Each structure stands twice: as C-alpha cells, then as structure tokens.
Amino acid sequence: MLKLFYSRGSCALASLITLHETGEKFERIDLDFSKDEQLSDEFLSINPKGRVPALVTERGTLTETPAILVYLAQRFPDSGLAPLDDPFDLAQVQSFNSYLCSTAHINHAHNRRSYRWADDQASFDDMARKVPETMGACFDLIENDYLKGPWVLGDQYSICDPYLFTITRWLEGDGVPASRHPRVQEHMQRMNERQSVSAALS
Amino acid sequence: MLKLFYSRGSCALASLITLHETGEKFERIDLDFSKDEQLSDEFLSINPKGRVPALVTERGTLTETPAILVYLAQRFPDSGLAPLDDPFDLAQVQSFNSYLCSTAHINHAHNRRSYRWADDQASFDDMARKVPETMGACFDLIENDYLKGPWVLGDQYSICDPYLFTITRWLEGDGVPASRHPRVQEHMQRMNERQSVSAALS
User: Which domain holds residue B53?
Assistant: First the structure.
C-alpha cells in the first residue's frame, strides 16, 4: 500500500488530493514541521532532503510533486488524471506543474523560508516585502494565459488542478488579494466541491 | 521541424543536447540575454515568461526544461532517452530533474538573478555569499545519493544526464570547488565525450 508523508499547509496537499482521486487505499503520515519532525533521523532515512511530499512505494520512495503526480496518473490510468499517451498534451501538463514548482512555490518560499538563500534579517524582510509582487505576477500569467477553465487544461480535470489549488490557497497569506485573479478563485471554489478535496482537508 | 529558442550559458543547453541525441533535424535560435532579446515583443508572443528554453512544435510552444525533456523522450522513443513505460523508473527521472529545476537551478539563480526575489543591493550580496553553501549541499546529495554512475540512472543514459551536465558547468562560477564532487566531475567528463555535447557546444 502506498504511504504518503504529509504536512498540513505544505505542497504535499496536491499529492494527497490526487491519491484520494485514484480511489485506492493508502496510508497518510502527518509530520509536524513546528517540531522539525521532517528532520528526524527516521524521516531523513526515507527522504534525505527532509521535505514532503515523500511517497513510499513497494519499490522505493519518490519525492518532488511533479514526479509524484505523473507517477500516480500513470500507475492508476483508469483515473484519467493525465493525457499520458499524447506527448504534447502531457508536456503541457508538465510545463504547468513545473512552473508551479520552480516559480510559484519558490516565490512563495521567499516569504517564510528565505533563510534558505540568505543569512541576514534585513534580507529576509526585503524578500518578504517582494512576495506579493512576485506571486501576483505569477498568478497573472496563470489567470490570463494558462488556466483554460473550468479546469487548467479545459474540460478535462487533471493533475494540474490539485497543484494549482494547493498554491492558490497560499495567495492570501502572500498578500495577493483574491479579487485580482477571479478565474483562479473560481477554480479554487470548484476544487472545494470535489470529494477528494474534502477528504484531503478533513 | 522543431525550433529551439536557446541562450548560451542557460539551462536550455539540456534541451539542446537532447535534441542532438535524437538525431532529428531542428532549428536553433540563439537569444542574446545581454541585449534582453528574451524580452522582445516577438519572443514574448512565443513565450510570455521571457525565458529559455522554449521549444516550438507544430502544435504550439513548450516551456520548462523537465517538460521539454520528457516530451523529446516520448516523441522520439527509439532514442531510448527515458524509461517511459515504467511508472516508478520514470518518476525517478522526473524526481531528479525536478530537483535540478526547483532546487539546484534556483540556488544558482541567487547568485546573479537575486533581483527576482529582493530589491536591495545588500540582500543581493547576502544571497550571493550563500550560493557556494547551497549549491555545495545540493551537489553533496547528488554525489552521495542520486548519481548512480556511470550515468545518473546507472548503466542507462537518460534525459537526467544532459540536465545534470548543464548545471554542473555552473559549479565553479558558484564557488563550489570541483574536488568536492569527484563523481559529478567524472560524469561531466563522460558527457564531454558525447557527440551530442560537442555538437551543442560548437
């Protein structure tokens, strides 16, 4: 049985929702980041990066959200979570998720995890001040260019949707007003109506 | 015919090498970042992010290195560039490439592109000072945990290799001595012997 290492408020929510979408049984293990449980020897032996999500499979542990999402789509093809057999369509899925991972999530991380890239409090303050601008710009692009609606790819729900939902939930805390991206907000509401999302957030 | 927008010194090198690996004809268009050619109206109409790589296909433009690399592997399956039909093996490819994209490349970007996340010169200096530490730690993990050798996945060359090669070339400029990661350096030398790499760097 698959086992997901998770933490509330983290990007692992995208993988958790996707596991619920597959309808398969799995085990969820919550790590408390406020207690640094992700840095315990036990967890570091599972994922030396000390991050979530980490998905433990019968063949080993997988990390990185874009990788885990395609893995779940490919392992459970009946769930129809990605256009697996069309290289161009799958590349668009991957392009969107890679942008969330390496641009949107990274911009967000400069709010409270800026110590990863600097040492001085003044730098942390400077970085935090810029987050509304960088996250706003990122979601302008998603609102105007990438979110086709009603789902990211258009009519077809996919592994892009829980990942967008996960990061959209961070916008308010990052100082980006909901009114700036009405289509993204509609997408979030649509996601909130899915059973997989209720199950993941319960 | 595929068309790759490229810039010397950028991460687009991974896509360029991979195109050469396929043996297919393609067009390469060099953008001069010192002249801000990536921000021209013409290029922004192709890729609104103003970044490379951008791969123009007969069905539209693809962006983000991890997406482009899997696309090329899937479009040209005879090249054997990724374990496409094994969800776990493909997820390992994707996990590695996602780590390069969202951790290694991002750490590197804090050297000369820190203006993306802050505004003050003192912050830029602080971030630049930390790059040897963050890039060093990143490559410690690659050296010790991920690079199986002789190629990233072991005996099988894959789309992980040109991406690792591309970022390894940045280490010296990021203040990480070559002697710290001997296996990564051997990998770079092995890559330098490939025809695709000579063709890409010519």
Answer: 2-79
User: What whole-number distance in Å separates Cα of residue A148 and Cα of residue A96?
Assistant: 12
In chain A, what residues touch B107 (CB-CB under 8 Å)?
117
Structure-block tokens of residue B101: 């994209």
Q: Which of A59, A116, A130 sits opposite B88 (nearest CB)?
A: A59
Does B202 map to a domain? no
Q: What are the tokens at A141?
A: 């692009």
A202 inside domain: no
- ∠A79-A167-B116 over CA atoms, to 5°? 135
Q: Do B123 and A119 touch (CB under 8 A)?
A: no
Identify the CATH number of the domain in which residue A100 sits: 1.20.1050.10
A92/A136 same-domain check: yes
Rounded to whole angstroms, how far apart are CA atoms A22 and A24?
5
Give dist(CA B193, CA B95) in Å, integer: 26
State the residue for tokens 């090498």: B17
On the question of a cis peptide bond just before residue B48, with omega within 30 degrees of 0, the verdict is no
pLDDT in single tens digits along all 202 residues of chain B: 999 999 999 999 999 999 999 999 999 999 999 999 999 999 999 999 999 999 999 999 999 999 999 999 999 999 999 999 999 999 999 999 999 999 999 999 999 999 999 999 999 999 999 999 999 999 999 999 999 999 999 999 999 999 999 999 999 999 999 999 999 999 999 999 999 999 999 9
Residues from chain B that touch A141, judged by Cβ atoms under 8 A, are: 48-49
pTM of model > 0.80: yes
**Same structural domain for residues A95 and A188?**
yes
